[in-house]
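Incident log entry.

Two folding requests arrived from the same account within the same minute. Monitoring flagged them as a possible duplicate submission, but the sequences differ. Recording both here for audit purposes.

Request one:
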Amino acid sequence: MPIILVVDDSDVDRLLMKGLLSADVDWLVSQAKNGVEAVDMVTYALPDVVVTDLNMPEMDGMQLVSHMAESFPEVPVILVTGTDDSKIALRALRHGAASFVPKQQLAESLLETVEQVLAVRDADHYDERIVQLTTNTRYRFVLGNDPTLISPIVDRIQQGMIAMQLCSATQRMHIGIALEEALLNAMLHGNLEIPAEKLTETRNLLHEGKTSPIVEERRQEQPYADRTIHVAADFNRSRAQLVVGDSGSGFDVDAKWPASGDESINEEAGRGLVLIRTFMDEVLFNETGNELRMTLNNLRPVVTPAAD
């Protein structure tokens, strides 16, 4: 049973988040009133995910993110942000937060975000004996518009990174979330052209493991039915590169690709883009807007302590 630690100095907001997380899933939700209390609880028993508000006394959300990244990097932290906290949210992502949810989108996005982070966190570990034998890893996938394939592909690529001990747990989680967002974008926006007003509901259903009626309908219809997604992943000891392309009509990159992720941080449709741009060093669309290339340089390898 996953343990979710909710941290907020407001009793009302804390109970609201607990209610949202307890509604439809079998999770144990614990609570802390500030960062100091949260650290004490984490030290006693590690949760699977921490969800924290930003503005709190004694130790605020940003300080908690930094502390968790340094002392408990295996525990992902999701930051809940206010309307005017976009720059702070981006800074938190760069300092180790796994994701963020704008406070005005809690009802629509909190459950989905926690489910996403948990899924990415739960990649299996490989036999460490093969680590030193691997210098690079490449994956190539071609998939149809089956949402149930997204998590296994993300897991498979993460397992390859674990096998090579390429990067820290935080970097690996960031890459996994960026890849999942790119795959969802390629499938829902690119291939199936799901209307914007139905995207939040569709994503929530998929992350809960449920069937989306509009996805199933369009998978059987032309021109959507025959469209595919191409995925390429290339890793070496210093760089990770991911390419996700769809068969849709794309978009006008010059007109719609924002100069900065800040422009769409509080829009649900742009939240995935913010995560990708923050977690990866280079993010480029092709000219037609139906292929996304993501690169992360300067991977931080896992250091295995020497045996006594």
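Request two (distinct sequence, not a duplicate):
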Amino acid sequence: MRCCLIGGSGFIGSHLASLLAASGRELTVVGRNATPIRKLPPGTKYVCGDYGDPQLLRKLVSQTDEVVDLAYATVPQTSFADPIFDIQANLLPSVSMLRSAAEAGLRRVVLVSSGGTVYGVARSLPINEEHPTDPISPYGITKLTIEKYGLMLRRLTGLPMIIVRPGNAFGPGQIPEAGQGFIATAIARILSNREVTIYGQEGAIRDYVHVTDVARGITSALDHGQPGRCYNIGTGVGKSNLDVLRTIEPLASTHGRRIELRVAERRGFDVPVNILDSSRLREVSGWIPRVPFEAGIEETWKFLSSAQ
């Protein structure tokens, strides 16, 4: 089975690439950099190219059986600063890819959306896939719009598209200070004796999922999901920013670090609480998260401290 992983050398993509290669797939990874920014599995073909190039996309999808699309050029914070760029950089290339995939007769297309943003302010918890979608950030609006284009093409052309909506991925390999990823940023700032900022007295509450569990969830949806359906990937447990810092605190203390905390006003584009119900994915594939939160925090601490 030939699989094309778009955005496959990023944080989640590099972990996902390892699983896809281990499954026996003939893997092609597409990225923007001349060489992969993270190590890829042996035998993986790497293609450097512009995701917005329609000719490249048509060529890639014509030479594969499956596509997993992880590519995205913005994060919630940067999308709010420039929503027009968010549309231009993400919506147009994604719709072009979906159209090319619809013409190519693929076995599966997995669109990696955002369980943390497309639902907006939670009306009930945990959030399942039937919860209303009412995003409050340009990032979430664009993610949801891409989903809608994919579902439209599913109805009109039979595009075998599956949507996954992960919670907040964390773990070794995540880049701090990238506008997304509170855990990596908090640990990096503690290690370098800088203050950690949270927004609101407790900070936002998020469903933190270890990156290897996110990658397993995506492959589970690829192998067992039903085209036209959405699947959350979460733990069902919410942690506030303060909860995260309390978990980090013993590690910091052991290594002679103190947590300097700054509390700022809440930001309008932050969803206050996001906790996902992943029962649908569990029922079709047996997927459950395996990495305990505390173990993932310790693993991330070790990774970032070794990189100093």
